[in-house]
Each structure stands twice: as structure tokens, then as C-alpha cells.
Amino acid sequence: MKKSVRSAAVLGGALLLLFFSFLLSLRHGSTYLTTKEFFGAIFGHTGCENAALILTAIRLPRALAALFAGAGLALAGTLLQQVTDNPLAAPNILGINAGAGFFVILSLTFFPALYALLPFAAFCGALLTALCILALSGRLQMGKTAVVLCGVAFSALFGAGISFFSVLDADVLASYTDFSVGGLRGVTMKDLYFPMPIILLCLVGACLLAGKLQLFCLGDTLAASLGVPVRRVRLLALICAAASAAAAVSFAGLLGFVGLLVPHVARRLARNRTRLEILLSPIGGGILLLLADLAGRVIFSPTEVPVGIFTALLGVPFFLSLLLGRKHHA
């Protein structure tokens, strides 16, 4: 009973922090809104039409984009770390970022006029790359090491492809840079209609798998002896991770370190309760990106700093601390 009360308190506190982060993202931006204008726009008061337009057309889509991008990437990171038993695993380890980036630069090279198709190209590239990795690692008996090594190989392959097309055309490189850094500028509600349901479905799927994923810490052999279909669960979890991350990068670009940093924080708060960890990770990812995007909009206003730069500033020291920690315990 004590554990359930603590879990409810942690989850409730995280949701409350997410709510206030979302409210802050709506409240502040490059255009200053008074408190009267802000709440008047929310409740539809007369005379607040301009403020309402700013909220509904610009800030609300951007806040939702930050929330779902952070949730999708953090969920993907948690699932990858669970099924590979690798605390350094993140969506880019599976080759998702590289696959998305390669398809984007292909689209920019061969269809430069169809700029609106870039999110679709990113999603297809990320998901197809993940499916190729799953198919190849499946032939290698779907082991934890096989998945990681296949991801690294595909990341290197697509990284070389991106470099090749970047060298061929400087204009393509300039256009690709915005996507590679990662940012939420110019995101509209129309951009979110497709990826938001995918991320929510992946979260539901991850929660359904949580009970079996909890046993993965015992090792594949012991988990299988307890009735867990290890290969099937790993496959489903990796598909959820791939689809969730692919949906996020399709509109947010190649945001780094969210899928690495947030799952570790969630794991410490959850204390080895997998279902709670799976719920906390998307919430934490949403909070991180909402606050990072807000900082990028207001600190250097009117200049805007892409949210990917802030996540990198947080993620690189965290990643190095993980590496040093692993070396210390080796």
C-alpha cells in the first residue's frame, strides 16, 4: 500500500509539473501578453481577440509539439533501454535519427520544391530504418546485442549518405541544417494530426507490455522460464519505440539526448517499477522540451534559439557522466 501511495504521489506531482510547464509555454513568448489578455483569451473575453489568435495559432500548436515530441522521444528511449539492457541506448542508437535525416536529405535533393513533404519523408525514413534493423536482427535471433549493433551499422551507413549529398549541393546542406538541429518553429496543428495519435498508441502499447518488460531485468533465459515470450515482447517494444520516435522527429527534427536523459530520471523516481517508469518518461520528456523551448524563445528574444541546442547543452554533460560512471563501476 505504501508503494502504491508513493507511486500515485510521484505520478501526480509529475502531471502537475507538466501542467504548469504547459501553462508557462502558453503564457510567455516573443510577444508580451498581460495577465488580463492571457486569461481573457483563454476564456474568450471580448477585446482579447489578438491575444486569442496568438495563443491558438502560434503558442498552442508549439506547446503541443513540445509536449508530444518530448513524450515520444522519452518513451522510445525508455523502451530501448529496457529491451537492450543498455543505459546508453537512445533512439539514435537504433538508427532512427540517421534514417530520418537520410530520407529528408534525399527529399531535399530530388524534390526541392516539395518542402511540405519533409515531415512525411522523416517519418518514413525513421520507421523503414527501424523495420530493416528489426528484420536483420531477427535473423540473428533477435538478441539484445544484435539490435544495438545493427542500429550502429545503419547509423554509420546513413550518416555517410547524408555527408555525401551534403557535399554535392551546398543549398541542400543549408536546408538540412534546420532539420538536423531540431526545433519547433513554425509547427502548426496540421503538422500534429498524424504523429500525436501514433505517440499515444505507442504509450498504450508500452503500458500493456510493462508487466513482461519488468522481468527482462532477470535475463532472457530466466524471463522465458517464467512464461515471457522474450523475442515477441522485445519485437513489439522495439516497434513501439521506433514508431514513437519516428512520429516525434517527423515534426521536431533530430532532437538529441531527450531519449537518453529523461528515462534515467524516470527510472530513479520509479524505483524499478516499469509501468510507472513508462508513464513518467513521456511526462518528463514533455516537461523538458516545454521548458527548453520556452527558454529558447524568451532568453534571447527576439532571436530564437532552437530547442535542440538546449537539449544538447543538458544532454552532453549527462552522457559524459554516464560514461564516467560506467567506467568507475567497470
Keywords:
330 residues
Uncertain parts? none
Average of per-residue pLDDT values: 85
Shape category: globular
Estimated share of beta-strand residues: under 5%
Helix-and-strand structural type: mainly alpha
Cα(first) to Cα(last) distance is 37 Å
**What is the radius of gyration computed over CA atoms, rounded to a whole number of angstroms?**
20 Å
**SSE order, as H and E?**
HHHHHHHHHHHHHH
What summary fits the major beta sheet?
A: none
Number of strands: 0
Question: Can you give a write-up of this model?
Answer:
The chain has helices at 2-27, 35-42, 49-84, 96-110, 118-139, 144-168, 170-181, 189-192, 195-213, 220-225, 230-252, 258-270, 274-298, 307-329. Helix 1 (2-27) runs parallel beside helix 13, helix 5 runs antiparallel to helix 6 (144-168) and helix 12 crosses helix 13. By secondary structure, the protein is mainly α. It is globular.
Write the layout of secondary structure elements.
Blueprint: H1 2-27, H2 35-42, H3 49-84, H4 96-110, H5 118-139, H6 144-168, H7 170-181, H8 189-192, H9 195-213, H10 220-225, H11 230-252, H12 258-270, H13 274-298, H14 307-329
Helix pairs in contact: 1-3, 1-13, 2-3, 3-9, 3-11, 3-12, 3-13, 4-5, 4-6, 4-7, 5-6, 5-11, 6-7, 9-11, 9-13, 12-13, 13-14
Task: Summarize the structure in short.
By secondary structure, the protein is mostly helical.
